[in-house]
Amino acid sequence: MVNSRVHLLVLGVVWFVGCAPAEEAKAPQQQQAQAKTDKEIRREQRQLERRRLKLERKVLAELQKLRDRRQASTDGADPSADDQPATDECKLLVFGGASHEVFLGCLGDEKRPDSVFNMVGEHGSDQSPTSIRNKFAPYGSNYDDTSACNANATHPPAVLTSDGKSLGLLTSNPSLKRRIDAPSVTDWLSRMCSY
Q1: How does pLDDT run across 28-42, given as a tens digit for each residue?
Q2: Which of 55, 103, 136, 192 is the most exposed place for a label (fewest CB within 10 A)?
Q3: Which candidate, 133, 159, 160, 162, places its Cα nearest to that of 147?
Q4: Cβ(124)–Cβ(118) below 8 Å
Q5: pLDDT computed for residue 2 by the predictor
Q6: Residue pair 100/91 in contact by the 8 Å Cβ criterion
Q7: What letter does residue 13 receive in the DSSP assignment?
Q8: Residue 160: beta bridge partners?
């Protein structure tokens, strides 16, 4: 009886040891699968970042065209005359509030600290009270009357040129006549407001 117990114990140890290498073999496979998943996530993040930057460039290009057309129609200037060397001045500004008295940032290069496209800046962060990206602020919520994201807002933010001329309203409310309806702008706003 003692002999059979020893025999069973030896068989159990041999069986347990026989199982151990199979489990150890699983660990590298799991590591490889995790590395592959991490690599895919990083690739998808890079693709999303490229798409975001491309959309932002299109928004800026369309707004610049709108600005040039408005400037040419109001003062007869040649829009190409504005092709002087770039300055640090932002040419497209966003203002919010019922009377458009609150500066909400600049529609310019994301490297600018005051740019709406600067995701960590004061006017581009989803945490800032003066950002149209902040879902809990008056300028980015789905409910405030001064929000770009409220489809029923009557006092959404306005886009102005640096010389004070209005380009229109930055809003997802399609019924407002002064709404900027350039396709890339409405697409960008729609994407931004849906997050």
Answers
A1: 777 777 777 888 888
A2: 136
A3: 133
A4: yes
A5: 52
A6: no
A7: H
A8: 93, 166
